[in-house]
Amino acid sequence: MHKFPYEIDQTEFKGRRVLVTGGTKGMGQAILHRLHNAGATVASTARSAPVEHPGLFIPADISTAEGTAKIVDTVIGELGGIDILINNVGGSVAPGGGALGLSDEDWAYSLNTNLMAAVRLDRGFLPGMIDRQDGVILHISSIQRRLPLFEATLAYASAKAALSTYSKGLAKEMGPKGIRVNTISPGFIETTAATNLINRLATQDGCSADEARDKLMQSLGGIPIGRPGRPDEVAELAAFLTSNRAMSIHGADYTIDGGTVPTV
Ligand SMILES: NC(=O)c1ccc[n+]([C@@H]2O[C@H](COP(=O)([O-])OP(=O)(O)OC[C@H]3O[C@@H](n4cnc5c(N)ncnc54)[C@H](OP(=O)(O)O)[C@@H]3O)[C@@H](O)[C@H]2O)c1
Predict the structure, then answer these.
(1) 137-148 pLDDT per residue, tens
(2) Residue 155 placed within a domain
(3) Which residues pair with 77 in a beta bridge?
(4) 191, 254, 255, 256: which to mutate for ligand 1, most atoms within 8 A of CB?
(5) Does residue 188 surpass a pLDDT of 70?
(6) Residue 164: how many CB atoms within 10 A of its CB?
(7) What GO molecular function terms would the record report (predicted)?
């Protein structure tokens, strides 16, 4: 169970139905637990079932149209709809080697996982939100949307840029219908995936995990606060943005990166 270093209002999300994609690890898990602890009825989805999970869990591969259709059908069947949709799943599995190392399959995987999964789930849940004139959608993008790295993640960076642009346009369309749409763009956050990467780099380079973490930070040009972010810090931002405390925050893209992006 996730521990949060701050007090949580245990009733703030009471009566709100929340779906967090990829809520079994990393940031998604922290967001799911944060909102569950605040009284929300939660649901999540991932390819592999977690050992422990609050609320409804739907096993599905979100990178396919069949996977997202299964999620929409199950959630609507079980909960009747969703009030808050947090499109968190994303990532890159592409090999290193730069732009020429990326195959059509690498590009398709990145676009399907980081862009189309959100597009398809939004399309599935928006009609219910529009009927109720109430809903909140959050997209988890990345600072790579405007600080693209090319060694292994150019397709990922491009897909996240598309996700951020899509999110902004969707906000313009959905605001008048009572639905708030925002984006969070994290920098280096020490999640399950990031810890695994640090350990892999440490083994590969024959150095300590601390040295491998430093090298990763340097590859981003450094992190002014001197450390990666934590999943619970992203969860707190997500909780704020999806709460009624942020009723006039709409079409925004919040960077949470310890100061990594060097420009305004
Ligand atoms: N960590 C960072 O430094 C960082 C920085 C910027 C942006 N982000 C973004 O933040 C989001 C969360 O990243 P994270 O680091 O927290 O990831 P993570 O620790 O790797 O967790 C990813 C979650 O998504 C699920 N998932 C992955 N692929 C899936 C698929 N095809 N279908 C269904 N579920 C899938 C995973 O479960 P299964 O493996 O069981 O499917 C897991 O629950 C992503 O959009 C990522 O791009 C992360």
Answers:
(1) 999 999 999 999
(2) yes
(3) none
(4) 191
(5) yes
(6) 18
(7) oxidoreductase activity, acting on the CH-OH group of donors, NAD or NADP as acceptor
User: Which residues sit opposite 43 in a β-bridge?
Assistant: 19, 56
**Token pair 């990763």 in the structure block, residue:** 216
Same domain? For 219 and 132 the reply is: no
SS3 166: helix
The token duo for 17 is 């139905």
Amino acid sitting at position 73: D
Give per-residue pLDDT as tens, 62-77. 999 999 999 999 999 9
> Which pTM does this prediction carry?
0.97
* Residue found by looking up tokens 């592409």 in the block: 94
Task: Please indicate, yes or no, if residue 94 is contained in any of the structural domains.
Answer: yes
Q: Are residue 251 and residue 125 in the same domain, yes or no?
A: yes
The pLDDT, as a whole number, for residue 1 is 61
Tokens of 162: 């598309």
